[in-house]
Amino acid sequence: MSRLTKTVGLYLLVAAIVAYALFPFAWAVISSLKSGPAIFDAALIPAEPTLRNYVAIFAEQPFGRTILNSLIVGAGTVALSLVLALGAAYALGRVSFRGRRLLLMVILAVSMFPQVAVLSGMFELVTALGLYDSHAALILSYLIFTLPFTAWVLTTFMRDLPKELEEAAMVDGAGAFTIVTRIFLPLMGPAIASTTLLAFLVAWNEFLFALTFTLSAGSRTVPVAIALISGASQYEVPWGPLMAASVIVTVPMIALVLLFQRKIVSGLTAGAVKG
Questions:
Q1: By residue range, what is the domain housing residue 165?
Q2: Per-residue CA distances from 15 to 7, 18, 19, 25, 241 (Å)
Q3: CA distance to 2, 110, 216, per residue, from 115 (Å)
């Protein structure tokens, strides 16, 4: 087999994989531009494209408020995860103590529990703290999944930072807080970027906790609002508004991933290669 044939075959394979991965989103965009019975038309180009579905999702329910709720919950989850994970990463990555590896494994193992297994316990905790139907309830519950992953990635990255930097700072009288915030933090850009984006995606897309711990539209997040579109829509067929809502909440996430993809890869592969 010639080199040209191998190259062409490789490009065809990559093109097929890309087309397979992007087709569902592309079809969602196409469907969002159709209205009424035309939604079932298999044509790739709508005969009469319309933005009626995009207008409907904001007119029939407070979808703008729902997006704001998701942004607040996602930002709060990311901020709290980073603050807690930075301290944990410094202790686990730079301080030697007995059982450090076991503790790191336990932290990671927490994120492996299925949501259903911890749902009842989290519900009791949320109600006991008086946080039901609030942003704080979702932020607290999402830490179960975002904090272990964030702590693991930051620990791996911080462990590989040169010890000479820390020793020089300690000679100058810097404490642990100063070392983490003034010296290590500026060097951890890739790890911070990857953990921030992935933790935000978890909070943005989470459905079960958001459905269980919120009740009113003032606290409802995007996944729950999309699930309720079929019951709130005035259309006989709700797939148009449903696709429009999916496109609106997916496009920003795709843009963020494409924008920070290099930092994400470098952050996730930190520590994978030893010199």
A1: 62-227
A2: 12, 5, 6, 16, 30
A3: 51, 11, 22
What is the number of residues in the chain? 275
Residues contacting 179, CB < 8 A, separation 6+ = 90, 166, 169, 170
Looking at the domain assignment, is residue 252 inside a domain?
no
Report the distance separating Cα 213 and Cα 132, nearest Å: 6
Q: What is the CATH number of the domain that holds 125?
A: 1.10.3720.10
CA atoms of 250 and 202, how far apart (whole Å): 13
46 close to 34: Cβ distance less than 8 angstroms: yes
Which whole-number Å values give the CA distances from 249 to 33, 68, 71, 221, 246, in the listed order? 16, 11, 11, 11, 5
d(CA 33, CA 46): 7
pLDDT tens digits for range 212-245: 999 888 889 999 988 887 654 444 547 888 888 8
The token pair at 244 is 């429009």
- Average pLDDT value for the chain: 84
Q: Is residue 90 part of a domain?
A: yes
Give the residue, 176 or 69, on which the prediction is more confident. 69
Specify the DSSP element, H or E, that contains 221: none
Average pLDDT over every residue of 57-69: 88
Q: Give 274's pLDDT tier (boundaries 50, 70, 90).
A: very low
pTM for the structure as a whole: 0.82
- Counting the structural domains of the chain, the total is 1
What are the distances in angstroms from CA 192 to CA 32, 104, 153, 249?
35, 19, 9, 23
Average pLDDT over residues 72-81: 94
Question: How far apart are the C-alpha atoms of 76 and 54, rounded to whole Å?
Answer: 28
pLDDT (0 to 100) of residue 13: 92
